[in-house]
Amino acid sequence: MAVIEQFFTAGVVVEEVDEREARRALREQIARLERVLTATALAACPRLDPGPPLPSLAGPRVLSLGELERVRDALAGRLASLDGAVEAQGAQQARSRALLERMLADLPAHKWVRVSNEQLGEPGCRHFHVRPRLGLVGMLMGWWRVKISSGCPLAWGP
Fold it and tell me: What is the domain range of residue 70?
């Protein structure tokens, strides 16, 4: 019987977990994820929506380790989906830039095509539009040009 008692008492090692240190590390991870999420959403042009704020967990209180981990995991999931949206937006903008280059190289093949700065990922309201040079006469004669709009329309008062 003594051998069995020695086996069970000697083999059990319970380590104390420093919960304060674990909470501090999780709070730092959450803060870093929030900073990266915000920076990623603001760096995209046009800006992307990072999503609604995370739902509160039953009012103000100290969150348990499990709840802090859930918040961290939710933020990490949002960041991953936002990164995917940024990549998709970048690919669309690259396609729009290539279209603009093709438009400028071959005007008659891109009649009436319009590309905006928003599609190019640039700020402003400018548009590039392939149009005939002298209206109907230019359209019949095949005189095409790229008209670049001057930007955002002026705000007229009442």
Answer: 23-51+65-148
